[in-house]
Amino acid sequence: MSFLREFVRNPLTVGAVAPSGRSLARVVTSPVPSSGEPVVVELGPGTGAFTGTIQRRLAGRGRHVAVELNDRFTQLLKLAHPGVDVARADARDLVSVLTQRGLDRADVVVGGLPWAVFSPQDQHDVLDAVVEALPPHGVFTTFTYIHARWTGPARRLNQSLRARFDEVVVGRTVWDNVPPALVYHCRRPLD
């Protein structure tokens, strides 16, 4: 209910009426390594649909930083996931968020942002911040809803990802998400 309430309050920053489902969370978070000490950043975690899955994959290793703009969601995340470093910040400020934490990079960035409601400039700025935060071996995953795949914002996102990453793989449709979604797996950020 909290998610729907926040959507009604500000649909241009929440962007969905319900959180993502478990199947989508598994696919989006699949690049989180099962070994080592990775730095994982979650952009737009909302109420934590991907957060718990990331925490289970990390199993106490590495660092998990969640960047959330919505104040209510930020508070909920801090209560529900005390092991996550939750930053109330704009995704465009990703590099600053990392620097403030003594981190110079993120191995994996998981995006749960409402791309369809972003202006072209907002999309551009966030993706530039993601690329700047990733090392050459870094991975970025995000998703789009299947029904909106051919809209202007979704096509722009696809083009922007392909302009910023050497490899962009569009995964299979996650049909049991509401609404069904496609996941972008982006590797090897370009300078």
What would you say this structure looks like, in words?
The chain is of the alpha/beta class and 191 residues long. It contains eight helices and seven strands. The protein has a seven-stranded mixed β-sheet with strand order 3-2-1-4-5-7-6, sandwiched between helices. Strand 1 (39-43), helix 4 and strand 2 (63-68) form a beta-alpha-beta unit. The longest helix is centred in the middle third of the chain and has 14 residues, at 120-133.
Distinct helical segment count: 8
Bin the strand percentage. 15-25%
Shape: globular
Helix share, percent: 25-40%
Q: What structural category arises from helix and sheet content?
A: alpha/beta
Weakly predicted, low-confidence segments: 3-17
* Overall pLDDT metric: 90
Number of extended strands: 7
Could you give the order of strands across the largest sheet?
3-2-1-4-5-7-6
Biggest pleated-sheet summary: 7 strands, mixed
Short key terms for the protein model shown above:
disordered N terminus, alpha/beta, single chain, seven-stranded mixed beta sheet, 8 helices, 191 residues
